[in-house]
Amino acid sequence: MSLQDILKEILSQAHTEVEGVKKSLEAEKNQLKKAADADLSQAVDQVKARGKEAAISVQTKMEDMARKENKKVELQTRRAVIDKALLALIDHFGSLSEDHYADFFKKASSDLGSEKGVFSVPENRKSVAEKNAPSGCEVRFDKNVKSGFVFTSERFTVDNTFENLVMSEFRSPLEIYFTQKLNLA
């Protein structure tokens, strides 16, 4: 299955989930509106004696509070959907074929230049990394590295784990991409 197909599948699943969440949010919004209307009605009855202006002020505040609460829930849901899509992408990268992992490893390690150091890799990627590591570099299995690799030299450390690349370095553009593709804007 190609990366494009996996992205389409992730987007399709996320889109379905987004639709369900939107329906859920609409129901919750209606409940909040009904509760706010009931509270508002009671508040209006109590303040009628104080004047029409005070009643309108209370209604406006209640509507603002309901709107803010609805927006907060919507943003939390959007964040959860995007995080789920990012985690699915990390899982996909973690299950790359040996050839694709080798391509990634070669490209990412070539960016290090002639620096000598140690590549920390997942156990299932050690043999591929050993075949493709620059000469003079060591490759070690590290149980803390779940995908990608971490390169350590005397001068610096480069975290090229898929978790770091997706959740830190490329998170912003990926969030924008998923927001657009899942119609979350």
Oligomer: single chain
Q: What's the end-to-end separation, in Å?
A: 29 Å
Alpha carbon gyration radius: 26 Å
Order of helices and strands: HHHEHEEEHH
Polypeptide structure, described:
The structure is a single chain. The protein has 185 residues and is α+β, with helices and mostly antiparallel strands. A four-stranded mixed β-sheet has the order 2-1-3-4. Helix 4 links the parallel strand 1 and strand 2. The protein is elongated, with a radius of gyration of 26 Å. The protein starts with a helix and ends with a helix.
Question: What key attributes describe this structure?
Answer:
alpha+beta; 185 residues; four-stranded mixed β-sheet; 69% helix
Write the layout of secondary structure elements.
Layout: H1 3-47, H2 52-94, H3 98-110, E1 118-121, H4 126-132, E2 138-141, E3 149-152, E4 157-160, H5 162-169, H6 171-181
Parallel strand pairs: 1-2
Antiparallel strand pairs: 1-3, 3-4
In short:
By secondary structure, this protein is of the alpha+beta class. The protein has helices spanning 3-47, 52-94, 98-110, 126-132, 162-169, 171-181, and strands at residues 118-121, 138-141, 149-152, 157-160.
